[in-house]
Amino acid sequence: MTTPPTASPAPQTHKPQTMAERILSRRGNGTFYAGMLAVVEVDQVMVVDSIAQSFIERMERDLESVPKYPERVSIVIDHVAPASTVSVAQAQKEAREYAAKTGVRLFDVGRGICHQVLMEEGLARPGWIVLGSDSHSTTYGAVAAFGSGMGATDIALAAASGKTWLRVPESVKVTLTGELTAGVGAKDVALEMIARLGADGATYQSVEIHAGDRFTRGERMTLANLCVEAGAKAGLVVPGGEILTMYDVPEWVYPQEGATYVRELDIDLTALRPRMSAPSEVDNVHDVAELRGLKVDQVFIGTCTNGRLEDLHAAADVLRGQRVDPTTRLLVIPASSEVMEAAMADGTLLTLIQAGAVLGTPGCGPCMGRHQGVLAPGEVCVSTSNRNFIGRMGDKDAKIYLASPAVAAATAIKGRIALPEDIGAQ
Ligand SMILES: CC(C)[C@H](C(=O)O)[C@@H](O)C(=O)O
Ligand code: SF4
């Protein structure tokens, strides 16, 4: 197989480092700064169903190799699960056989979306390097893991060698100030951040988010998840709040005072209103109030961005005792089996179903337009996901608006873009 190049030599003096520089240095073979080439240990390699066939082909045909550490590789069947066609079923069958043969972990149909599942399983931890065959692998930055998406070839090389090599990214520092007002949450912050960075504004950079003790792990996942929509290589949230009680956070993941950033921006949470991304770019962000009243055919609550228990709670708080508009469909797809079980146990699912929601199998659902709720020409969807590109959820003439679970729920009741306050909720 290909031999990794030798990493850049360590500099003589020690300058303060960003989070990305610190983590890559610690997990690699030197003291790295932006622009240098780092060779690093990989703690977890994640392969999704849609990429599994090409991953297996790279491993067996091109590299003639097997995973060096099978316990560090996970395959997740989540994007089109259960299978929608014979060829999808065949690919998934091959993924199962490969897992059985090599001893890598397999999370099968119904366990949930890759990023949610890895987080729940403790397969992303502070200071880890987690590579996924999926662009939203930046999500692991919620717990200060350097998470990044790569193609099948790079993923296979990492699985075969236990290492990867990459150019150390420059960092953008995003500092959150003030406190959120009622009805505004992590999704609104994430959309505002993308609007401010721009869709290509952080290409190959590490977005380092200074959030203090604000936000739960799930909310931090929403923030880190969206970073890739600005083109980021990683989205790292400085540990604080509940992360400190959930994990042992090593000192070496924190950025150092005086580190070098290519750009710094502050987001004042107090001034933020519920935000919505209009078609067909994620950075086309507006106040929901400006878009109010637009007729909506489908509302989708779920995905790796906003399909967690707290998201279902936010939706249920708005939908309790209400009915979905008869001309609008509401799809709710929990991000994982664990989320579904908890939402079942605490009555959230009953509330949603009584309001008229249709429940789907934990997984990606219609997020990328492969099954379970694709859109017809001219249809409009409000989704809690992260991408609203042309054709993303079905027909190229369908339109997707991205918003928080609370806004999505209010919209489902009205059948038109709405704020929770429009139906008397907060
Ligand atoms: C199928 C997968 C590779 C893809 C990604 O890379 O993100 C998908 O998850 C998406 O959201 O578009
Ligand atoms: S839920 Fe959507 S964005 Fe997330 S991994 Fe699945 S397809 Fe990609």
UniProtKB/TrEMBL annotation:
Chain positions recorded as [4Fe-4S] cluster binding sites: C304, C364, C367
Requisite cofactors: [4Fe-4S] cluster
Matches recorded under InterPro entries: Acnase/IPM_dHydase_lsu_aba_1/3, Acoase/IPM_deHydtase_lsu_aba, Aconitase_4Fe-4S_BS, Aconitase_4Fe-4S_dom, HAcnase/IPMdehydase_lsu_prok, Homoacnase/IPMdehydase_lsu, IPM_dehydratase_rel_enz
Domain Aconitase/3-isopropylmalate dehydratase large subunit alpha/beta/alpha: 43-290
UniProt keyword GTP-binding present: no
Co-factor remark: Binds 1 [4Fe-4S] cluster per subunit.
Reactions mediated catalytically: (2R,3S)-3-isopropylmalate = (2S)-2-isopropylmalate
Metabolic or biological pathway, per its Swiss-Prot or TrEMBL entry: Amino-acid biosynthesis; L-leucine biosynthesis; L-leucine from 3-methyl-2-oxobutanoate: step 2/4
Domain of life, per lineage: Bacteria
GO molecular function, one term: 4 iron, 4 sulfur cluster binding
Broad class of enzyme this protein falls into: lyase
An individual GO BP term: L-leucine biosynthetic process
Annotated keywords: 4Fe-4S, Amino-acid biosynthesis, Branched-chain amino acid biosynthesis, Iron, Iron-sulfur, Leucine biosynthesis, Lyase, Metal-binding
Transmembrane residue ranges: none
EC number: 4.2.1.33
Family label: Belongs to the aconitase/IPM isomerase family. LeuC type 2 subfamily.
The protein's role, per its UniProt record: Catalyzes the isomerization between 2-isopropylmalate and 3-isopropylmalate, via the formation of 2-isopropylmaleate.
Subunit structure: Heterodimer of LeuC and LeuD.
Designated name of the protein: 3-isopropylmalate dehydratase large subunit
